[in-house]
Amino acid sequence: GGELHREAGKSRSMMKLLLLTSAAAFTTAPVRTPLASSSTSVFAFTEPGFCDGLPGVLAPTGPWDPLGLSEVDGGELRRYREAETQHGRVAMLAVVGFLVAESWHPLFKDVSGPAIDHLTQVRLEYPAFFEFGAFFIGLLEINRALTGWAYPSSRRVVNTLNEDYYPGDVGFDPLGLKPSDPAAFDEMVTKELQHGRLAMLAAAGFLAQELVNHKPILETLKLLFLIDQAEFDKLEGIAGPDPTVIDKEIFSAAPDTFGFGK
C-alpha cells in the first residue's frame, strides 16, 4: 500500500509539472533578438548569434541551450530545426489522437482501451490499414524531400537543405494562416515550436503511463484527481473513499510489459 501510494504521488507530481509547464506554450510575447529576421520565402543568415537568428527564444528562459547543441554550422542547425518542427507536429497530432480516440474513435467504433493498443486492434480487423497509412505518410515525406532537401548530385550536398527553404515550410497552408510580415511570422513559428515541444513531452508521458498501468490517459487523470480529493477529505476528517484503494485502482490491471515478473 505504501509503495503504491508513493508511486501515485510521483505520477501526480509529474502531471502537475506538465500542467504548469504548459503555460509557457501559450505565451504570446517571444523574446526578440537583434538578429536576422526570417523570410517567408528565402532564409538568410546575416548576423551571428543564438541559433543563427532562428525564432523560438521565449521568456523567461531566453536563449537556452545547456548542452550546446546549437553550436554547429548554419546548415546543420537548420536540419536540427527541421527535425524539431516535424517531430513537434507529429507529437501534437499524437496528443490529440490519444485524447480523442480513447474517448471516441472517429474511424473504428469497435476499437477501445488505451491508445497504445489501438493499432494492434485495427490491424486485426483491417489488416491493410497500416500499409495504407504507411503509403500515405511516404507520399508526404517524398513531398517534403522534394521541397526542402537538396538534390544529392554530389557528396557535398547529400543530406542538406535547399538554401531557399525555411525549415518546416513545405508550402502547405490551406487556411492562409502564414503571416506575410516577418516579425509576425517569427512569433507564429515560436508558438508552434513551444506547443510542439510541450506535445513531445506529453506524448512521451502518455506512452510511459499507459505502459505502466494499461489504462486510458483520461481515466488515469480522473483517478489522480480523485486520490487528491480523497487525501484532502481524509485530512479534513470528511468521510470518503480510502486513498489507498484508489492507489491500487491506478496500478491495477497493469500487464507485465517488460517481463519483470518472470
TrEMBL record:
Residue positions binding chlorophyll a: W64, S70, E84, H87, R89, L124, K191, E192, R197, Q209
Origin: domain of life: Eukaryota
Signal peptide span: 1-25
GO cellular component labels: chloroplast; membrane
InterPro entries assigned to the protein according to its UniProt record, in alphabetical order: Chloro_AB-bd_pln, Chloroa_b-bind
Compartments where located: Plastid, Chloroplast
A GO BP entry: photosynthesis, light harvesting
Protein name (Swiss-Prot/TrEMBL): Plastid light harvesting protein
Organism: Phaeomonas parva
Organism placement in taxonomy: Eukaryota, Sar, Stramenopiles, Ochrophyta, Pinguiophyceae
